[in-house]
Write a structure and sequence with these properties.
The chain is of the alpha/beta class and 287 residues long. The protein contains 9 helices and 10 strands. It has a 6-stranded mixed β-sheet. Helix 7 links the parallel strand 6 and strand 7. It is globular and about 50 Å long.
Length: 287
C-alpha cells in the first residue's frame, strides 16, 4: 500500500466558498485515505453531498461528527434530534462505505503502519470551565453574561439524555471500553472533533468558549492509548502542537472569513506517513 492518510475538518459546506474548497479535494493516489473530523455541514442533505463526493474519490473515508452535524436546524428537512440524529448519520455513512465511530476501527497498513485509526464521538461536558468558576452552572452564567454562547445551546439537543454533559459521559464510557480492548502495543491515530486535552483552547480569542470544546475525562488518552497522532478540529485554529511527545493536528478549514485571511496552504493535512517536516519542526506549544 503506497497511499497516504490525510485529514481535514470543519468544511462547513453551506458556504459557497467552502463548497468550492470541498470540490477541490482530491487524493494523490488511488490508495489514499481521508479522515473527516466533523462539522461537514448542518443540514443532512449537505452532509450527504460532501460524504458522497469524497467517498467516491478516496479509497477510504473515516468520519466522526462535529457539533454542527448534530444540530436540529429549522431549515433542515430532517427533524431528528440527539442520538437519533447521530445514528441516522451513521446509517448514511454506512450506505456510502464511510467508517464511523460505531464501526470496527480501520487499520492503516501503508507506510508508517500498522496503525489503528479510531474515530471518536465524545462531545463535551463543560469541564473546560471559565477560570474561577467552580460549577458548570456558574461557568455557563458567566459565559452568558459575557455574550459568549455556543449555538449548540439552542440547536444541539441531547435526547434521550437530559443534558449534553450526560450524553458526553456516556459516550466517554463506551469509547473508553472499546479503546481498552485494543492491545497495549497497538499504535493509534485518535480522531475526535474536539481536542482531547484542554491546552489547545488556551489560545481562543474568547476563553469562555472553551467549555464547549471537550472534556477533562480524556486528558490522558493520547498516552493511555498509544497515540501516534491526535486529529481534531472545532477550534478553527489549524496548527500542530505536541503534548507528552504526541503530535496533535488541528485540521479545520473554518469559515470563509477566517481562512481567507490566512496564508495559502494545502487543505489536506498528511497524517501518515509522518511528514518529515513535522517530525523535524516539533515547535509550537508543548507539554
Amino acid at each position: 500500500m503506497k497511499g497516504k492518510l490525510f485529514a481535514i475538518s470543519d468544511l462547513h459546506v453551506a458556504y459557497a466558498e467552502n463548497r468550492t474548497v470541498t470540490e477541490s479535494l482530491v487524493p494523490e493516489t488511488d490508495e489514499d485515505w481521508l479522515v473527516l473530523a466533523g462539522d461537514v455541514a448542518e443540514r443532512r442533505e449537505d452532509v450527504e453531498w460532501a460524504l458522497r463526493l469524497l467517498s467516491e474519490r478516496f479509497s477510504k473515508v473515516i468520519w466522526t461528527p462535529g457539533n454542527h452535524e448534530l444540530w436540529t436546524h429549522p431549515q433542515d428537512s430532517c427533524d431528528l434530534r440527539g442520538e437519533h440524529r447521530y445514528l441516522d448519520l451513521v446509517e448514511l455513512c454506512r450506505s456510502l462505505g464511510v467508517a464511523t465511530p460505531e464501526d470496527p476501527y480501520p487499520v492503516w497498513r501503508g507506510e508508517g503502519g500498522p496503525v489503528t485509526v479510531a474515530p471518536l464521538f465524545l462531545l463535551y461536558d463543560y469541564s473546560f470551565r471559565v477560570p474561577g468558576a467552580s460549577t458548570k452552572e456558574e461557568s455557563l452564567r458567566r459565559a452568558h453574561d459575557a455574550g459568549v454562547v455556543c449555538t449548540d445551546e439552542y440547536f444541539l439537543h441531547p435526547d434521550p439524555y437530559p443534558e449534553r454533559d450526560e450524553w458526553c459521559r456516556e459516550r466517554v464510557r463506551e469509547t473508553e471500553r472499546r479503546l481498552e480492548a485494543l492491545a497495549p502495543s497497538e499504535r493509534t491515530v485518535l480522531v475526535n472533533h474536539y481536542p482531547l486535552v484542554r491546552a489547545p483552547t488556551r489560545v481562543l480569542r474568547y476563553p469562555d468558549f472553551a467549555q464547549w470544546c471537550g472534556t477533562e475525562l480524556t486528558a490522558d488518552w493520547h498516552k493511555r492509548f498509544n497515540a501516534v497522532t491526535v486529529v481534531y478540529g472545532h477550534l478553527h485554529i489549524p496548527r500542530v502542537t505536541w503534548y507528552d511527545g504526541v503530535r496533535f493536528e488541528e485540521v479545520s478549514v473554518g469559515y470563509p472569513r477566517e481562512w481567507q485571511r490566512r496564508a495559502p496552504r494545502g487543505r489536506l493535512r498528511q497524517i501518515l506517513p509522518l511528514p518529515v517536516s513535522s517530525a523535524a519542526s516539533a515547535g509550537g506549544e508543548k507539554r
